[in-house]
Amino acid sequence: MAEKRRKFHEEMKFIKRISPTQYEIAQGFVPNMRVPGICYVNSALEGLLFDELKAYSSSGGQGGFLPAVKQMANVAAMPGIVQRSIALPDMHSGYGFAIGNVAAFDMSDPDAVVSPGGVGFDINCGVRLIRTNLTEADVADKKEELAQVLFDHIPVGVGSQGIIATNTKDLDTILEMGMDYSVREGYSWAEDKEHCEEYGRMLSANPAKVSQRAKKRGLPQMGTLGGGNHYAEIQVIDKVFDEVAARKMGIDQEGQVCIMLHSGSRGLGHQVATDALTSMDKAMSRDGIKVNDRQLACTRINSQEGQDYLAGMACAANFAWVNRSSMTFLVRQAFQKIFKQQADDMDMHVVYDVSHNIAKVEEHLINGVPKQLLVHRKGSTRAFPPHHPLIPVDYQMIGQPVLIGGTMGTHSYVLTGTERGMAETFGSTCHGAGRAASRNSSRRTLDYTQVLDNLKTKGISIRVASPKLVMEEAPESYKDVSAVVDTCHEAGISKKTVRLRPIAVIKG
Amino acid sequence: MGESMPQYRSAAEGNFLFEYLDHTADIQIHAWGCSLEEAFANAGLGMFNYMTPLSEIAKDPSCSRYFDVEGHDEQSLLYNFLDELLFVFSTELLVCCELTVLTLDRATWKIRAFANGEKFERGRHASGTEIKAITYSAMQITEKEHDAEVFVIVDI
């Protein structure tokens, strides 16, 4: 922290608006930048971005944290980064990488790195959407009951333990096989896999690379939702923007009921990330890799630590898919119980399942030449265009579905990937609303009962384990998800398909 | 540096020597004490208190235990210490309401701590917010004579 902080107006000299939806962060904004940074943000959202920077420039260095623009610029200084460090409209300060940060590293460059800070602690945190053929009218008088049954079925919050029995041997199989385990054990339908990234299984997984510590944390938590911004919501389709794409996904009727799950790899993933950070912290001094921030701990992709992390990360990703699949099973059970019909008679198919905290080896065109890149997406969703070989057959004509979870009580969206996104952002778009206010200020300024009352007047049933979390997660603490999605739509990096509105929320 | 810090340490939780500072997505724990040992222990308590209010945690003698943790420098020692406490919470649901760092060895970067507390029980104890992990992000450890403080951001 020896370096002298620049004044806010001096910092602003490096930041230039290049289009109504983009800012460019010039090299020199932080030391050693190899490529520029690009922030996708429109005029409605830019205030939040600059507020963090302003607070940083004027603070005296006691406590405090790095603003998101500084963080994404620090990422631009990492070895092997290609083209640009990208920040999406839901960006905010994270640890290491900013949240909403995308960066790709050239696999053919021996110095290129992989960074656990570019994936995050919640490896393969993601969103899954399940459709039904029920309408809002069908569930209207059963909403409270449904919310209660879901809350009873899905363990949530601090210290919750899974009800799907898992032993140590199962756990290794889960880490290796991902959703193939869920299908084998009867928790998933075979077709669920088709609608997941990587078909719900990363083949690079090696359970031997996951520490006993991580396994011990993961074991009791299979099939649990977690806390923080994770949730299970019953939603209804509120507006259809793209009828063709919506029809392909089977979600084209206004008033149609869907279920959205937002969860990740639980303690197992958190520990895999922690273990990797610790081992890389040491390896960096050995290999002489310099970065601007300790939380950006990274290692060469081809080093032992790099390969071990990628194999462990894949295991955590598999755990997360099985976790979301286990909860899908519980959701289907709950609906069967309430509506006394079979889940497949209610057409409860998985529409899609996205990962928004992950690193993947992908092929992209760089200056017209295909290149293997390691793409880190932290708080960002893959959004591949139509005809991309890695998206499911039935979505080939419309592009990959992208699921954007809103915040408690606000809209959620389904988007599709575009060619422009493929060219500009390595086929990536936003992941959610993104926080605007700190958890602490939300606790101080918002009232628990008032937040709940607001939800009630909107007709939303809510079940929550922690009252404090209600304040921290109140819509007031977040950016406007519609403004975030509109920015991505205007910038052309993804396209709006449908908007959903919550009618019941289950949270930690 | 630090002459005018009106809010500094002013938001302490109850009688504890820690407070929670603003961070957009996560929580920054600021803990202090007369020595580094105390500041480390208070950071641990600050973490537990975020997951469940410590005022409701009793001391169950069968849960008291020692923690032995090592690092390779000051920051990694704090990181590993908190990571160990979080690990014990995640796997055994142990919440510590009393933490004492008995020794902190600066040559070998080792800590020995003693803890009292009880097991978290849903329904009996209030749920706070789950903490996913400890981070190095903007970590600060400062020590003066008869005063030490730490800043650590935990991931929510």
Task: Please provide a written account of the structure.
Chain A is an alpha+beta fold. Chain A contains 17 helices and 19 strands. In chain A, strands 7, 8, 9, 11, 15, 16, 18 and 19 form an eight-stranded mixed sheet that branches. In chain A, strands 1-2-3-4-5-13-12 form a seven-stranded mixed sheet, sandwiched between helices. Chain A has a two-stranded antiparallel ribbon with strand order 6-10. In chain A, strand 12 (357-366) and strand 13 form a beta hairpin. In chain A, helix 11 runs antiparallel to helix 12. The longest helix of chain A is centred in the middle third of the chain and has 36 residues, at 304-339. The mean pLDDT of chain A is 94. Chain B is an alpha+beta fold and 156 residues long. Chain B has a single domain (17-155), classed as Archease, Possible Chaperone, Chain: A, domain 1 (3-Layer(bab) Sandwich), CATH 3.55.10.10. In chain B, 22% of the residues lie in helices and 35% in strands. Chain B contains two helices and eight strands. In chain B, strand 1 (18-21) and strand 2 form a beta hairpin. Chain B is globular, with a radius of gyration of 15 Å. In chain B, 51% of the residues are buried. Residues 1-6 of chain B have low confidence and may be disordered. At the A-B interface, strand 4, helix 9, helix 11, helix 14 and helix 16 of A face strand 2, helix 2, strand 6 and strand 8 of B. Chain B: Belongs to the archease family. Chain B: InterPro entries: Archease, Archease_dom, Archease_dom_sf.
